[in-house]
Specification:
Elements (H helix, E strand, L loop, with lengths): L1 H37 L5 H21 L2 H15 L3 H24 L1 H11 L4 H14 L3 H16 L4 H24 L3 H27 L9 H4 L2 H35 L1 H38 L2 H37 L3 H7 L3 H23 L3 H27 L1 H26 L10
Helix pairs in contact: 1-2, 1-8, 1-12, 2-6, 2-9, 3-4, 3-7, 3-11, 3-12, 4-7, 6-9, 7-9, 8-9, 11-12, 11-16, 11-17, 12-13, 12-14, 12-15, 13-15, 15-17, 16-17
């Protein structure tokens, strides 16, 4: 028994730690972009704004299409657990086919996409003009970016988190290096940042293909298009990924709504909430590491039909998740007032932020269940149930709570609505787990 628990803990950490490292490379790139534009001798504010607007558009686009990674991870983990080599090969190639079709659609529709995006994003004429140039360059990274989503999900489903970690480190390191080259050597400013992203993404794609051919060559065999387009397999693929897509759009809505309301209150509250939210994002990098481990391990157990192992995996993931949440909340309780000085030296903002800081101390505890259950639901491809819990939590918990509490409590009401949203997601997924997670496994159509 002790040996089995040790082995399960080892497997969780083997998958979680590389994913945490991968996640932590992302904000480093964002900070590098900001620092480069922020230290330009002329018009630094304009270039910072241009990169910020352009990055926001791509963050929304790619976050919306994150189902390519999540769906691929769940399908692959279950096929891996079932030892179905044929389904593993078909799953990767079908995901890549869909990723490339979506990417080329984004390129073809780039003009209406940018028109709609800049109608919603309010920037000065100069900032918007530069942001459009950034957009028109970076959009050509779409095939590589979306194909990498498929590869990341597939490698994780194959119980391998080291390859995605290696690719993420190479991509983000190269991106930062090229940023410096294009901005300082070639004086390209925001356009250079966009071009660096494009080249780094295609480098990552080449590296992913190299890993596939080196370690998983048997799954790179040519599969007939008619098999990839088989109706039964496509229906399951799009049904699961469609549900994940709706779930993701609702999550984006809640986060965007939170920011929009913050801005509507006043500029100081927007600055305070943005500052405090950085600490929630930092926690999410660690929580997501264990959620990703849950995708791989829960999917593998489900695919093998071992419900006993699945239950043990879920229990162990929650022990790790709650431990991380408690530790983070304790660290924030003691040190958050000091950590804020790392991100800003504006004493007025920091002083006001201290009034709301305890919400951030609570968020790891109220939110960890949602993170862990998300990973488990993705792994067992219970996308419909996950979608339904997000609809419930957004439309029947978050929005009513906000409209009831905000007039009474102001910004505290906004934070409380967010807390209730996170609690609702975790609780509703726990209540549905018996049917959605632990029911006997069904065969995945291939």
């Amino acid at each position: 028994m002790a040996h089995a628990q040790t082995s399960l803990n080892r497997n969780i950490l083997r998958l979680a730690v590389p994913n945490i490292i991968s996640n932590l490379t992302v904000p480093l790139l964002g900070m590098a972009d900001f620092a480069l534009m922020g230290h330009l001798k002329t018009d630094s504010v304009v270039y910072v704004g241009a990169v910020a607007l352009g990055t926001t558009i791509f963050n929304v686009l790619y976050m919306s299409l994150g189902f390519l990674r999540m769906g691929t991870s769940g399908f692959t983990a279950q096929s891996y657990g079932a030892k179905d080599d044929k389904a593993l090969g078909i799953g990767l190639q079908r995901s890549l086919l869909v990723a490339l079709l979506l990417a080329f659609s984004l390129i073809l529709l780039q003009y209406p996409i940018q028109w709609a995006a800049f109608k919603m994003l309010d920037g000065s004429q100069q900032v918007t003009s530069l942001a459009r140039q950034y957009f028109y360059i970076r959009i050509y990274a779409a095939p590589a970016t979306l194909a990498l989503y498929s590869f990341y999900g597939w490698f994780l489903g194959m119980q391998n988190a080291r390859i995605p970690m290696t690719i993420a480190i190479v991509v983000n390191s190269m991106n930062i290096g090229l940023n410096f080259l294009f901005v300082y050597a070639f004086h390209m400013h925001s356009n250079g940042v966009a071009l660096a992203s494009v080249l780094a993404q295609y480098t990552g794609l080449l590296l992913a293909i190299w890993f596939l051919l080196k370690k998983y060559k048997m799954y790179a065999r040519r599969i007939a298009l008619k098999i990839l387009l088989k109706k039964e397999g496509l229906v399951v693929f799009f049904k699961v990924n469609g549900d994940i897509f709706i779930r993701t759009l609702l999550l984006i809505f809640v986060l965007t709504f939170f920011t929009a309301v913050s801005a509507r209150i006043n500029n100081k509250i927007l600055a305070v909430n943005t500052l405090l939210f950085q600490f929630f994002f930092f926690f999410s990098y660690f929580a997501d590491g264990f959620a990703f481990a849950g995708e791989a391990l829960a999917g593998k157990a489900k695919g093998s039909g071992n419900i006993h192992l699945l239950r043990k995996t879920v229990n162990r993931l929650f022990i790790w998740g709650l431990g991380i949440a408690l530790l983070t909340s304790l660290i924030y309780l003691v040190g958050l007032k000091y950590f804020m000085y790392i991100l800003t030296d504006n004493t007025a903002i920091i002083h006001l932020a201290k009034e709301y800081a305890w919400w951030v101390v609570l968020l790891p505890l109220t939110g960890i269940a949602a993170f862990i259950w998300d990973g488990i639901y993705v792994g067992v491809t219970a996308a419909k149930a996950m979608r339904n819990t997000m609809i419930l939590s957004t439309l029947f918990i978050f929005l009513p709570a906000f409209y009831l509490l905000f007039p009474l409590l102001g910004n505290h009401g906004l934070w409380l609505a967010l807390q209730l949203f996170m609690i609702s997601r975790g609780l509703s997924m726990w209540l549905l787990a018996r049917k959605a997670v632990y029911s006997p496994s069904r065969r995945i159509a291939s």
